[in-house]
Design brief:
The protein is an alpha+beta fold and about 550 residues long. It has 22 helices and 11 strands. Strand 6 (about 255-260) and strand 7 form a beta hairpin. The protein starts with a helix and ends with a helix.
């Protein structure tokens, strides 16, 4: 009953408190009873206290006393490890809001004596007080040490106290008799105070690892061939002096950069000039959804080309299939419509495909290799608009259709059959080399039939397979333009995994459409009113 009352009180407080204590007149919260309730034996009591603490943490940007109150409660030595772990997310949320509200630098000014006392706690020998991490059982936890480290991090995040804290930490590192645990904690705080670089490694649209480097300090990971060192940071780039995957040179900040050796991976470099920026960044990488972060990286990577009405460069083209696909679809829809196409040699990105293409066609090719089904509507719209640069070797719509069909074959979605059936009527060509040209409708029909276990040849569909050289062919014979184009197309379709088809006669297209129509469920007609069953009345309902 007490837990139910607490839940009701929390629901009422979430509505009443913003009116009673809104703006700058909120009173300092008393969180100590709520924190102690987290150790209760009753589940509803713990749940109600946790919800109230979460609501208070969300007010940390408005009430500057929330975060300090939570810190004081978390520093209680009597708290168990379970309560500390339960309280940690609310404490980090309150710190994040406290840091991002814009007033944390002047909100709390720590004195020199306070800073010195916190440093002394961290520099003390470990022994029985050494911080340990346990699951459920007891562990020798030093609450004062954890509280001191948090206070020093917060002081480093302030503009007024950062220099004093950094000097005190560096002086503590020079002391004699420090154990390994004290050295590790002091060095970690000193590194947080220095300008740094966060290197995110993304693969298959997932952030797998994040490495932190101090600017100007070489760092060599176990197993690495050489140390990595970022020497200088500017507004929009960082200079790598030495590295492993990254070679020496300048790299852009805040945008995706292709991995030099892996096709479906990229780096995202973030500048962290202050401890405050580092704390904010760490919270966002741990708490925000990875999809939202990837969407923001995609926006920053592709938006400059769209804003400047200029063609995508090599790095942007290579990354199209690895970025957030809904964001890529939205940006490319505008890009294809507003940015003129330009010539581009696709062999720069795909050496086996040496035919001269255009920027828009290369974008479609990159999406065919790594794109997902969210991009298909944008590709179809680009194919139907035919705004690509006219070339003598193909037609503007071909590469967009090829990319859409490739994604449908590699990553079919729920209604892909209906989508393929809707393309059967289209006769746009997707191959132009030597031999009969394949078209999008025939290729979609063949894919649909194969998905349902039917033989495409039964409906008059002919696969346009690769050319086979005979034993009597002379390799030194002149190769004409059609034959060269056919060899390029054979390599292209082999790489994307799609075989173009064409109908042997005009009746095949209608035959496939009729077959698909017969497979659709026939809706049952609504019976006439006189055929509906009469309502049944029970004795109780029929009695007057």
């Amino acid at each position: 009953m007490q837990g139910t009352v607490r839940l009701l009180a929390f629901s009422m407080a979430s509505v009443v408190l913003p009116f009673l204590y809104g703006g700058d007149v909120e009173r300092p919260p008393d969180v100590a009873p709520l924190v102690k309730t987290l150790a209760s034996d009753r589940y509803l009591d713990r749940l109600g206290a946790l919800q109230e603490l979460g609501a208070l943490a969300q007010r940390a940007a408005v009430n500057m006393d929330v975060y300090p109150a939570l810190k004081r409660a978390a520093a209680d030595p009597a708290l168990s490890i379970d309560v500390r772990l339960t309280l940690a997310p609310q404490l980090e949320t309150a710190r994040y809001l406290w840091l991002t509200c814009g007033e944390s630098g002047a909100a709390r000014r720590s004195s020199t004596g306070q800073i010195a006392s916190w440093v002394d706690v961290l520099a003390s020998n470990g022994g029985a007080e050494r911080t340990a991490v346990g699951r459920n059982g007891p562990a020798p936890i030093s609450a004062q040490r954890d509280a001191a480290e948090r206070e020093l991090l917060d002081a480093l995040a302030g503009d007024v106290t950062a220099t004093a804290v950094q000097q005190a930490l560096e002086a503590a590192l020079a002391r004699d008799g420090l154990d390994d645990d004290a050295l590790a904690r002091l060095r970690r705080l000193v590194e947080s105070a220095r300008p740094g670089i966060a290197v995110e490694y993304w693969q298959r649209r997932r952030n797998l690892t994040i490495q932190y480097f101090v600017v100007g300090v070489p760092s060599q990971a176990p197993g690495a061939m050489r140390p990595t060192c970022f020497d200088r940071v500017a507004d929009d780039f960082v200079l790598c002096a030495t590295g492993n995957a990254l070679r020496p040179g300048e790299y852009p900040l805040g945008v995706a950069y292709p991995h030099p050796r892996e096709q479906a991976a990229f780096f995202h470099l973030v500048s962290l000039p202050t401890a405050r920026e580092r704390l904010i960044y760490q919270y966002e990488t741990q708490s925000l959804d990875a999809g939202a972060r990837l969407s923001a990286v995609t926006e920053r990577t592709l938006a400059p080309a769209l804003a400047g009405k200029r063609p995508l460069d090599d790095s942007q083209l290579w990354l199209l299939g690895q970025l957030d696909q809904p964001t890529v679809a939205r940006l490319l829809r505008t890009y294809f419509a507003e940015v003129p196409d330009a010539p581009f040699d696709v062999s720069q990105l795909a050496p086996m495909l040496s035919d001269v293409s255009s920027v828009h066609r290369t974008a479609c090719l990159m999406l065919a290799l790594d794109g997902s089904h969210e991009i298909v509507p944008t590709l179809v719209e680009a194919a139907q608009s035919k705004r690509f640069l006219p070339l003598a070797s193909d037609e503007p719509q071909a590469m967009a259709w090829i990319a859409a069909l490739t994604i449908a074959a590699r990553e079919p979605w729920d209604d892909v059959d209906g989508w393929l059936a809707g393309l059967i009527q289209h006769s746009d060509r997707i191959s132009f080399g030597q031999g009969t040209a394949g078209d999008v409708g025939a290729t979609a029909a063949a894919m649909l039939l194969v998905r349902h276990g039917e033989d495409p040849a039964y409906f008059g569909l002919v696969a346009r397979g690769p050319l086979e050289r005979g034993l009597h062919d002379r390799f030194e014979a002149p190769i004409n333009a059609d034959y060269r184009r056919r060899m390029f197309e054979d390599r292209l379709f082999k790489q994307v995994g799609v075989t173009p088809y064409y109908f042997a006669d005009a009746t095949g297209r209608a035959a496939v459409q009729n077959w698909w129509r017969r497979r659709q469920p026939t809706p049952s007609p609504t019976p006439p009113i006189y055929m509906l069953p009469a309502p049944a009345f029970t004795a109780r309902a029929a009695r007057p």
